[in-house]
Amino acid sequence: MKENRGFSLVEVLIVVAIMGIMIGFVFIGLPLLTGQHARKCANNMSAALGKEKNYALARSGTADCYMELLLDADGYHIKYYIPKNAVVDGSLDSDWVLAEDETIGSAQVDVSCNFDDGTSAVIKSGQSVKLIFDRADGSFKEAVRSDGTALGTGGGSAHCTDITFDRGKKYVITLYPDTGKHVLERVN
Predict the structure, then answer these.
(1) Residues 150 and 158: beta-carbon distance below 8 Å
(2) What is the maximum alpha-carbon separation in the chain?
(3) Residue 8's pLDDT band (boundaries 50, 70, 90)?
(4) Which of 9, 20, 29, 88 is the most buried (most CB within 10 A)?
(5) C-alpha to C-alpha distance for 140 and 130, rounded to whole angstroms
């Protein structure tokens, strides 16, 4: 006769540990495979663009508004700036007040901005891009680097034409400077 002893406690613990490790890999890899982080960041950026356009049209008085896209240890942030007073001299940073700071996505996502002069900027830690909105019609005026200089060849200004979010899947927000309209789409 054969002995039917079953499984020992050590064998059961080893099988449970292996299954736990395999499930952990699935949960870690699943957002990467589905592009969940990039999709969330792109959707939040799209909402932020609409919110800043509303700030420009409704709350800015006689000065333009701007938003700043930046990366820090917590992830990607959007900072909304509106004029301190109804009438300002129009210079960035001097007469502006931070209206809101919002985290839009994980630092795991690669974000880049492309400009109509053929240049691009990858948002890295400590860098930012400011998008300026016209208070009269909500259109995009220009993009400004974190050091305060306007983007563009030869020191001229440039408009941001699209913002790309990449992490497993790629999402692009196409910006139309003349109208302030933007369209979000998945490209792969």
Answers:
(1) yes
(2) 97
(3) confident
(4) 88
(5) 11
CA dist list (Å): 99 to 45, 59, 68, 91, 147: 16, 11, 12, 17, 21
Is residue 103 within 8 Å of residue 75, measured between CB atoms? yes
From 166, 175, 82, 76, select the one nearest 128 (Cα to Cα).
76
What are the CA-CA distances from residue 147 to residues 34, 143, 175 (Å)? 35, 12, 23
Contact 70, 124 (CB under 8 A): no
The pLDDT tens digits of the residues spanning 56-95 come to 887 656 667 888 898 988 889 998 887 776 434 444 445 6
Q: In whole angstroms, give the CA distance from residue 47 to residue 51.
A: 6
The span from the CA of 121 to the CA of 129, in Å, is 8
Q: How many CB atoms lie within 10 A of CB 128?
A: 21
HSE-up of 97 (CA within 13 Å, CB side)? Answer: 9
Alpha-carbon gap, residue 179 to 140, rounded angstroms: 7
Question: In the structure encoding, which two tokens stand for residue 52, read together?
Answer: 């800043």
d(CA 158, CA 116): 6
Structure tokens at 121: 């900027």
DSSP state letter for 153: G
